[in-house]
Amino acid sequence: MTTWLLDASRETVWEVLQDVERWPSWWRGVKRISVLGEDRYRVAWRSRIPYELEFDFVVERTDAPLEMEGSATGELRGAGHWRLLEQGGVTAVIYEWNVETTTPWMNALGRVARPVFEYNHDVVMRWGGEGLAKRLGSRLLAAG
């Protein structure tokens, strides 16, 4: 689970997050987005580990500007759920990402390399919070 606190309105944050095709312009680590169809994307990520991870993501449900959820298949398999809560002009972006790897080498190294994979994920998510704040012209008050 990742949480970003941003000095911005929920509606403004929502507009940027739901525009998945533009993520590479502000989210360091998102290498490319390919549109596969309505609410279907192929996403390629790369962080500190010199390996690109690619998976397809289908947006299955949205309730603008409150939440968006969907499922991933490919090198990762599972589900993601974005929730946006606002109070006093500060928006909390909460992202739950429950996935497992499908590549044999990652699965073979899973127990030993889990801390490295988690660190890598945390780095990419921090970059997302920082990039989103910059894109919005706001401040990232907290990330974790």
Give structural attributes.
alpha+beta; 144 residues; eight-stranded antiparallel sheet; 3 helices
Word description of this protein:
This protein has 144 residues and is α+β, with helices and mostly antiparallel strands. The protein has one domain (2-143): Alpha-D-Glucose-1,6-Bisphosphate, Chain A, domain 4. The chain has three helices and eight strands, in the order E-H-H-E-E-E-E-E-E-H-E. It has helices spanning 10-17, 23-26, 104-136; strands at residues 2-6, 30-37, 40-45, 53-63, 67-74, 76-87, 90-101, 140-143. It has an eight-stranded antiparallel β-sheet. A hairpin with a 2-residue loop joins strand 2 and strand 3. The mean pLDDT is 95.
Concise account of the structure shown:
The protein is of the alpha+beta class and 144 residues long.
Write the topology of this structure.
Layout: E1 2-6, H1 10-17, H2 23-26, E2 30-37, E3 40-45, E4 53-63, E5 67-74, E6 76-87, E7 90-101, H3 104-136, E8 140-143
Antiparallel strand pairs: 1-7, 1-8, 2-3, 3-4, 4-5, 5-6, 6-7
